Amino acid sequence: MSAETLLLTILLLPLAAAAGIIITRHSPDIREGVTLLSSALVAILVVMLAVRFMDGEAFALTLIEPLPGIAIAFEIEALGMLFALVAGLLWVVTSIYAIGYMRGHNEQNQTRFYAAFAVSIAATMGIAFSANLFTLFLFYELLTLSTYPLVTHADTPEAKQGGRTYLGILLGTSIGLFLLGILVTWSLTGRVDFQSGGILSGHIDPAWAGLLYALFLFGIGKAAVMPFHRWLPAAMVAPTPVSALLHAVAVVKAGVFTLLKVTIYIFGSDFILSNDVTGGLIWVAAATILIASMVAMTKDNLKARLAYSTVSQLSYIVLGAMLASKAGLIGASMHIAMHAFAKITLFFAAGAIMVASHKKKVSELNGLGRAMPVTFVAFFIGTLSIIGLPPFGGMWSKWYLALGAVETGQLLLLAVLMISSLLNIIYLLPIPIRAFFSTPASGEHYTAIAEAPKPMLLAMVITASACVILFFYPDPFYRLAGLAAGGY
Amino acid sequence: MVSHISLLLVVVPLIAAPVVAILPRGRLPWLVAFMVAATCAVLAGMQLWAVLYEGAISYELGGWAPPWGIEYRIDAVNAFVALIVAAIAAITLPYALLSAEREIPEDKIPLFYSALLLCLTGLLGITQTGDIFNVFVFLEISSLASYALISLGRQRQAFTAAYQYLIMGTIGATFYLIGVGLIYSQTGSLNMQDLATILPGVLHLNTVETGFAFLMVGIALKLALFPLHLWLPNAYTYAPSVVTVFLAATATKVAVYVMLRILFTVFPQGFAVTTPADELFIVAGIAGIITASVYAIYQENIKRLLAYSSVAQVGYMVLGIGFASATGLTAALVHLFNHALMKGALFMAVGAIVYRVGASRMEQVHGLGRAMPWTFGAIVLGGLSLIGVPGTAGFISKWYLVSAALEQQAWISVAVILSGSLLAVVYVGKLIEALYFKPVSAAGKAVSEAPILLLLPTWTLVLANIYFGLDTDLTVGVAEKAAAILMGMTP
Question: What is the model's pLDDT at position B1?
Fold first, then answer.
């Protein structure tokens, strides 16, 4: 298979899967078979593509050109490859998990769920391989729209309200600010393609560049930079597999990924560094890191706490992007992967707790660890990786982010990163500790509660192990991140 | 043969109209009307092709040379608009068969198709003619036919709506006629080409300026430019569904065309800038986009919601005209085409709901999206195009409009265009919530999907929305040519 065919297959396979899921809706076993098969195939194909890319194969592919100079075009590039690799590998794991969850939880409308899920993956892949801002924007909006039925899955008034916030903020920022940013870029340079070194240099007065960067920073609402972060907690009404893959990995990472792309390939890190484009804006990211962590502490609902933790962690990546130094960009890119594996583990565990014990609140978890040891060990591993302790993958990205702060002489930002790690400890670590060492409020021991269904456990074990493996073997992601940042 | 196409486009539906009126009841009138519309669409396509590859067509009626005789003069601008009108008619008529049988009394069916053909005659005539008085004649033909069509609506309010439109439309037509008279009194000519050579010499005359003002106000009434739009929401709401589809997709578009013609061909390009007209267009466009979009959000009737959205969309087109630049005109023309596609699709889908439940009030359609998935899908995709999501035709329109605004550093307009999209998110979202998330009423449970004959034309337009969002050779290509002609950039 040529690399072009490989890429198109990765894009089209999830769409074909969505069609297959709808066709086979009357026999759930075949329907889930379609999901599993196609997600496994996508994972294999993504790995194949990554291997080829690392061997130096590269290409660009223009599908159609709706307007002169504005095409739907794809290319393989290091950062996109990294993002596609993360999303592709985690989709198959999440599919295994979702089957256990949706059946264990007796959810309704499962066909719609799996179909929309597959379309979301197609949109994510489209974002990852976009060769220009227009294509990226197209799939960015498709991702918003295809995840909307997943957010409102429960069909309750609460879900509808969550869906409104979700759609309102994401579409509002993308149409009002992001699209404006793209149009301004287009009117200044006459192009929208991603090019290493950026395209804006020489076309924009550096004094205005900060304003344009702000359009992207706030317009890319999926990056959840405050004050446009409210959609993410709102999206937590969705079933947990959605929160796990889409709202801890695909959707939010699509946001920070887009911002990284804009930083590296539209502005160019040299242009940002030499003109101090992001000097003021970087504090927005710093503030988001700290404020979101503090909000997370106040949340008793487990998924809400994890959501705010995600908001905070996303801004690590945003901050790394805005540092625009080599280490900062490497750290930011690697954090896309590292945070993905850790956070998905946490969400998997949260969903397992919900299915097995119907508990949603942190304060109800006392003593549950003895009834669900695998779940809480996985949760513990994810927690440590998020905090950034060895021997877990999360350490590497934090290392490079901190290095980036030092490299650019931003010691105050270094302090922010350190404080935030402490806050992570405060709001995440007590959860497994409570589960293992506290006794339930009523004094009873959980005898009726057992571990969640096997597929869910399997998924959790895979992602938790990945957190450990990524500490010893971060090389694929490190190499891709290094390439994206412009060499090691 | 090619030279006769322009005449045939008007004559064929004109002759067919009385024939259809006397045909027996049953489906024969429909069949004839459909064949006429299809013929017109083919002819309009051939005409556009001829104009694009062989240059402008001039056809002298009765062999009288212009400026004394009436001349049909076709260039890329009107050939484009004629194609939109004829193509929409050809797609609407298959839809009309069932929808009209459901909504219009059986004994009026032949008359209905007759009036529809007359309306088509008028609209096509406006696009074909090169004579400003002749425009008035065709304007009246199409308007009178549409008053009759609107009054065929089942609810009693249809009469009021038709009457309201009659009064407002007549005022508009009268204003237009006064304008024509004033200009004739100073130039002695009615031929557009001829006027284009005479007018530059007499522009300083107050009479000509007054004539210009009358013309503009008259046309603005016809195209429902805010705040002269008051007739439109009622007319669209209470007319039979198929009439709404046809009028929404064609009537205001043709009025926009007339405005472009008068502004840029008849009067010398740049004249509007010396009058308050261009600022007024921008102000009215902006006010229309915002006000009508906000109004749309609060409507409790789907048809009325979409009608207010149409007023807002007219605002976009007029805003593009107000920029008076090549990009602005391209945007206006592209949106003219794209809006015909999206509103056609949306009103058809709503018509399919009306076909099933007989009503278009929000609370009567709760939850029907689940029972009618294809109709619902059409509304979702049409709505996305209305919002301007990339990959749909609506995005192309918005892209050009914002580009035109950025060209002139018109930041307020940029903000307004983008806010208009956001307001569209709200009202489309409201529609989708009502159709999908509200619990189904007891009566709604028995509803099934619309018949295939309604779905096919609807989805033809829906798919066209996607297609023209990805391939813009026809839309943008022709619109750019047309804009260049209007700006006087090509000989």
Answer: 53
